[in-house]
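hey
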C-alpha cells in the first residue's frame, strides 16, 4: 500500500447491488467517472465483487464495490450470489440498482429486507429512466421517494444528485473508540516492539504498526520503536517509565519477560480486537483452547490476502502452537480475504487476525456470525497470550474485560 494512501478499512464502503443487467457496472462507471467495471449486455458479466479504492467527491476516500447479479442462477450463480451477499457486510452505504423499465422484482425486495436486517443505509437507483416515456427528466429526483432517485447511467443524468444522496447516507461520526490514543495523555511514552525478520515486509512497517504510531502521535504522545532484543536496554535508558508497551504477538513471551510488571503490556492484535469488535467476546473465546480434542475443526481467518512466508503465522505458527498447547491434533481450516463461511457451527473455535484490513462493520459481522452459531471466536494475539499464560496481564488496562475473565475462571 502506498505510504500516503488511506487504508481500505478507513474508507467509506459503497456497494452497488441488484439483478443482472440492471446497469450496476454502468452506474458505477458513471459515478466514478472511470471505466472500472466491464459493461456488457450479456447477463452475469460481473462474476466476482470488484473493489476499487478512490477519491469520490463530496465524500473523499471511498471503496466502491461492484457485485454480481443477485438473481444469478445455477451452481456458479449461487456462488456469485453468496459473494454479493458477503460484500454487503463491508458496506456503509448500499445502492440498489433497479431497471426502471422492469420495476422491482422479488430479488430486489429480498435485498431491501437484507439491507434493513443488517442495518445498512441504502437507496434505490432507478436506472434507464431515459427509456421511460418523457425520459429521465420526467422521473427526476424530486419525484422519487426520499431514498429513491431516477437516473440514466448511459446519459449521465442525475449522477451528481446520486452522489449527494450517497454522501448524505455515509457515516460522518468519528469512531467512539480509538486504537490506542484514548489510553494516553500528552507527553506519555509508548514503546512499540516490532520484530524485523524474514516475514516482515521489506522497507516498511505493517499496517497495525503504522496506525498505532499515527494514533499515538495524534494523542500528543511519543512513540519509541524497538526490536524485541532491544527492549530491555531501551526501557533502562528511557529515564521515564512508559505508559504502555505494545508488542507484536509473535514475541509476546519474550517481551513479557523483559517488561517490568508495573508497566502495562498489550499487543497490536489485542488493541485491534477492542477497536474493531468486542474484546471481551474474543478474550472469552480463547478459553476454548483448553477443551480442544483430536479432530475438532478450528477455523483460522485472515482479513487480507498476502504472500505467505515459510513460517507464516496463520498457517504455520498458530497451528503449531495450538497443537503444542492442546496436545491434540485438531483439523485446521483456513480462510482469507473476503472469504468467510456462512456456516460456523461445525467449528470448535474461530481464530481471527486483528482485522486491520477489515471495516469495523465487517469484523462485528463475523463476531456476530460466530455468536449466532454458538461458536467461540478469538484472535491471534489473544490466543497467543492465553496459551503463554499472560492474557490477564495483556488485558489488565481494560478492567471490564479482566473482570469477565476472572469471573469465568
Amino acid at each position: 500500500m502506498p505510504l500516503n494512501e488511506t487504508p481500505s478499512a478507513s474508507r467509506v464502503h459503497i456497494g452497488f447491488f441488484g439483478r443482472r443487467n440492471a446497469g450496476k457496472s454502468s452506474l458505477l462507471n458513471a459515478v466514478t467517472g472511470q471505466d472500472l467495471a466491464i459493461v456488457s449486455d450479456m447477463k452475469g458479466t460481473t462474476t466476482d465483487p470488484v473493489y476499487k479504492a478512490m477519491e469520490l467527491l463530496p465524500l473523499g476516500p471511498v471503496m466502491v464495490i461492484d457485485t454480481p447479479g443477485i438473481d444469478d442462477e445455477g451452481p456458479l450463480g449461487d456462488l456469485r450470489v453468496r459473494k454479493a451477499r458477503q460484500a454487503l457486510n463491508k458496506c456503509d452505504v448500499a445502492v440498489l440498482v433497479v431497471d426502471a423499465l422492469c420495476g422491482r422484482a422479488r430479488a430486489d425486495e429480498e435485498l431491501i429486507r437484507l439491507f434493513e436486517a443488517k442495518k445498512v443505509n441504502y437507496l434505490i437507483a432507478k436506472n434507464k429512466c431515459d427509456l421511460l416515456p418523457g425520459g429521465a427528466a420526467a422521473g427526476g429526483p424530486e419525484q422519487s421517494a426520499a431514498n429513491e432517485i431516477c437516473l440514466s447511467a448511459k446519459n449521465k443524468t442525475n449522477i451528481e444528485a446520486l452522489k449527494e444522496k450517497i454522501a448524505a447516507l455515509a457515516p460522518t461520526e468519528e469512531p467512539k473508540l480509538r486504537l490506542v490514543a484514548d489510553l494516553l495523555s500528552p507527553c506519555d511514552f509508548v514503546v512499540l516492539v516490532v520484530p524485523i525478520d524474514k516475514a516482515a515486509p521489506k522497507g516498511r512497517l505493517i499496517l497495525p504498526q503504522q496506525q498505532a504510531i499515527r494514533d499515538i502521535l495524534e494523542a500528543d504522545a511519543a512513540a519509541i520503536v524497538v526490536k524485541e532484543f532491544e527492549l530491555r536496554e531501551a526501557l533502562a535508558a528511557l529515564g521515564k517509565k512508559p505508559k504502555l508497551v505494545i508488542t507484536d504477538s509473535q514475541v509476546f513471551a519474550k517481551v513479557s519477560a523483559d517488561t517490568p510488571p508495573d508497566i502495562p503490556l498489550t499487543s497490536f492484535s489485542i488493541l485491534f480486537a477492542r477497536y474493531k469488535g468486542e474484546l471481551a467476546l474474543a478474550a472469552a473465546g480463547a478459553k476454548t483452547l483448553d477443551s480442544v480434542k483430536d479432530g475438532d475443526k478450528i477455523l483460522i481467518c485472515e482479513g487480507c490476502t498476502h504472500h505467505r512466508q515459510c513460517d507464516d503465522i496463520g498457517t504455520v505458527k498458530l497451528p503449531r502452537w495450538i497443537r503444542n498447547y492442546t496436545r491434540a491434533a485438531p483439523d485446521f481450516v483456513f480462510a482469507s480475504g473476503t472469504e468467510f463461511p456462512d456456516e460456523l457451527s461445525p467449528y470448535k473455535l474461530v481464530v481471527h487476525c486483528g482485522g486491520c484490513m477489515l471495516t469495523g462493520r465487517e469484523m462485528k459481522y463475523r463476531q456476530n456470525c460466530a455468536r449466532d452459531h454458538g461458536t467461540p471466536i478469538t484472535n491471534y494475539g489473544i490466543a497467543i497470550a492465553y496459551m503463554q499464560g499472560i492474557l490477564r496481564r495483556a488485558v489488565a488496562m481494560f478492567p471490564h474485560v479482566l473482570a469477565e475473565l476472572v469471573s469465568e475462571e
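The chain is about 35% helix and 20% strand. The domain at 280-408 is CATH 3.40.50.11410 (Rossmann fold).
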